[in-house]
Amino acid sequence: MRRIVIVGGGLGGFRTARSLRAAGFDGDVIVVGDEESLPYDRPPLSKQLLAGTFTPEQCLLAGETSDVRWLLGTAVAGVSLGRQVLTLTDGTDLGFDDLVVATGRRARPWPGPPTVARVHTLRSLADVAAFQADLADAVDVVVIGAGFVGCEAAATLRQRGLAVTVVDVSAHPMPVLGDVAGEVARKRHAEHGVRWRLGTTVAAIEGQARVRGVRLADGELLPADAVLVAIGSLPNTEWLAGAGVALRGGAVEVDRTGRALDEAGAPVPGLWAVGDAAAWAHPHAPGPVCVEHWSNARDMADVVATNLVAAADERTVLTSVPSFWSDQYDMKIKSVGYLRAADQLALVEEDPARRALLVEARRAGEVVGVIAFNMPKAVLGYQRALRLRSA
Ligand SMILES: Cc1cc2nc3c(=O)[nH]c(=O)nc-3n(C[C@H](O)[C@H](O)[C@H](O)COP(=O)(O)OP(=O)(O)OC[C@H]3O[C@@H](n4cnc5c(N)ncnc54)[C@H](O)[C@@H]3O)c2cc1C
Prior knowledge:
This protein is α/β, with parallel strands linked by helices and 391 residues long.
């Protein structure tokens, strides 16, 4: 019986398994995941779960799990593609016919000296549980990094009544949104009491047994009972080292059918990759890019599962248009398109009363994406147009 092994039990791994069954695959499907939990959704971690309005169970991904073998709490340490065998960290081997890389990313750790207690990152259920424990008696929290995870966490922590300061080297939060939308977001957070330290860097996280504060480059000490380090992520692909797979910024380079490529650009037989650990050539990007959005993991998983059961000459290609959302206070941020391709971000509509705005991302005058605050419907037309062009 043909056996497909999926490494990584997050959204990409779960969705690949589900879509394989939906496509009629009746062989063996095994998911190896290093977390103990059945697959769960990460977006609520910085929102409802941190706010305390969701339980971990409410984060679990919906869908059948009984038709798949789950090796949970089990990490993959290495692979021999020639022998078609994975080595697990407990020393056992696991053979496969096809292998799907769905190992996602982990939070980038603080790069300074080993940190003291009460310094956290936010990527998993376990991370949230550890952070929550230290927030119980906290007053001041410093968030290092004003990307989406940092900003969402800041909004949630303010709504919990904690004093929050966010530090980032950039001039605006969520720099990919550009100056106009970034400034609107900055003001909205400030209205909710977030203190900003933008355009500055952290010199050190200070404290002995536990964190005492965050020292900025200009000497200011921000008091902190807990610190959240939200400075991006790193791909979990070290286990593929030496396997002859092309890694771009650590992510597995795939063609638009989801097949992993080798350094010469040729498909590696039987190896596929999806989600945050994969990099693909989006038509608007200069080369293979890693699109770290929920919808990208879903779309890649669907394409890979379809292609795993299709004949070689009937494979479909990924035409996914990157899209993401973010909820911060009453700001519903929605974006479609590959924003990093833009050479201009143009404000095309604004309604301060509704705190709504629409910004087009253009490259050489052509619309390659859009950013909307509180205008979810306006995004749909752009999404349709971009999808048609991508197809
Ligand atoms: C806090 C947070 C909030 C987010 N909010 C949004 C949002 O609002 N909107 C949006 O579009 N996107 C959001 N995202 C991004 C979205 O969650 C990711 O794009 C998505 O989780 C990617 O899925 P994945 O399966 O590729 O990777 P992951 O979800 O990272 O899953 C990978 C799994 O593989 C496991 N693994 C790693 N290495 C190994 C190994 N060697 N052996 C076995 N298992 C391994 C990991 O532990 C993990 O369980 C958010 C992400 C985070 C962290």
